[in-house]
Design a protein that fits this description.
about 400 residues, alpha/beta, pyruvate-formate lyase- activating enzyme, 2 domains, 9-stranded mixed β-sheet, 14 helices, globular
């Protein structure tokens, strides 16, 4: 590894693919288990062993990890012994800092208080609860395995175990979801007392059940105006309740922003481990195969080759575009210093594109000492930071990013 040129990763995402069933909007790489209780015998243990072998092959030479994130899939379906084996391997080959954030996604109906206690004993100190909606009809419509009763039991277990740092996920734009449904879900989420809330707008990913239904005219997707109204209402309710809207879809109490996800949004390097996961190391991005057999075959080939850094190098322009796209998801926005190797021509294109939206109040510009600038005051010398406005700029972020990409890719 060229550690003299690139930063070493300080974060690791570990993919646990097991799910009882596939949700109708899901295109993640998963392995459907049905209702069976998982053990480390057979194929589940085989997967854990494969992930541990991949971890051991990384040849990490940097500082101990600052964040570890178990995502999926449904990590709370994996036996605690499996999580322990993976974490032990991470400790051995990467190291985990004493103050590290170790996060885990958990789903209602897949854990109880005893399991939460076991996760805590392993050092997991942040949990993300996949509620999505509090209405049984909407959960069933989405193909979720859990119901409202499971949610209530999960919240009771979290309260009894005195979990301090946890997040709750919600989805907007679900077919048949009403304004009253959305307000009720926000209200119940606040009553539950999480330190962090994520609100994701439903996206119809290709080849999902929802996508196929929509193409056949069997899915009534809410119009964009309604989704925008849901977004504005969520922002109003959560910020008035004391949550800081720090990223386009995420809200946190002070001191409870997700440290791991900020690695992605700041376009910093990270390990991605397991089936379908993506790494960003030494200026290269690489995604693993999305099936278990494909992942196992790739793993054997990679290990037999002496673990060279896989993937294609991200070009300077691609790196700049990704830094803009990801950085503008954050309420804090982007500074020139955060953009990699931006030259004067690119800087001029960025300024011209951003200021062209100034009259629509979708963007804000800041100079020295965080002074707010008018569009007419913005120049290459005066501008230090730019960000999208909340909520309107976030709602029109795709339009702004498309204009930026078109300007920067011109004549390339």
């Amino acid at each position: 590894m060229n550690t003299g040129t690139y930063l070493m990763p300080t974060a690791a995402y570990i993919h646990i693919p097991f799910c009882r069933q596939r949700c109708f909007y899901c295109d993640f790489p998963i392995a459907v288990t049905g209702l069976q209780s998982l053990t480390l015998d057979g194929w589940v243990g085989e997967y854990v062993e494969a992930v541990c072998r991949e971890i051991a092959g990384q040849q990490h030479q940097g500082q101990p990890l600052q964040t570890v994130f178990f995502g999926g899939g449904t990590p709370s379906l994996l036996p605690i012994a499996g999580l322990e084996k993976i974490l032990t391997t991470v400790h051995k080959h990467f190291g985990i800092a004493m103050e590290a954030e170790i996060s885990m996604e958990i789903d209602p109906g897949t854990f109880d208080q005893v399991q939460l206690q076991g996760y805590k004993n392993l050092g997991i100190n942040r949990f993300s609860l996949g509620v999505q909606a509090f209405q049984d009809n909407l959960l069933a419509l989405c193909g979720r395995h859990h119901c409202r009763r499971d949610i209530d039991q999960a919240l009771t277990a979290i309260a009894k175990e005195n979990i301090k740092n946890w997040s709750l996920d919600l989805i907007t734009g679900i077919p048949e979801q009403t304004e009253a449904d959305w307000h009720r879900s926000l209200t119940l989420a606040l009553v539950a007392g999480p330190k962090h809330i994520s609100c994701y707008d439903l996206v119809l990913e290709p080849q999902t059940v929802f996508d196929k239904w929509e193409q056949r005219g069997k899915l009534a997707v809410p119009p964009p105006e309604r989704s925008a109204d849901f977004y504005r209402h969520g922002q109003e309710v959560l910020t008035q309740a004391g949550f800081y809207h720090y990223e386009i879809s995420n809200y946190g109490r002070p001191g409870h922003q997700c440290r791991h996800n900020q690695i992605y949004w700041r376009n910093l390097p990270y390990y991605g481990l397991g089936m379908g996961a993506t790494s960003y190391i030494d200026g290269k991005r690489f995604g693993r195969p999305r099936t278990r057999n494909g992942y196992y075959q790739w793993l054997e080939s990679w290990l037999n080759q002496g673990c060279p850094i896989p993937g294609e190098t991200v070009s300077p322009l691609e790196n700049l575009l990704e830094s803009l796209m990801l950085g503008l998801r954050l309420t804090a926005g982007v500074t020139w210093a955060q953009l990699p190797s931006v030259n004067q021509t690119e800087k001029a294109k960025i300024l011209a594109t951003l200021t062209s939206f100034g009259d629509r109040r979708w963007l804000e510009f800041y100079g020295e000492d965080n002074q707010l600038l008018s569009t007419k005051q913005v120049t290459g010398a005066t501008l230090q930071r730019f960000c999208l406005t909340d909520p309107e700029g976030f709602l029109y972020s795709n339009q702004i990013l498309s204009a930026l990409f078109a300007a920067l890719e011109e004549d390339c």
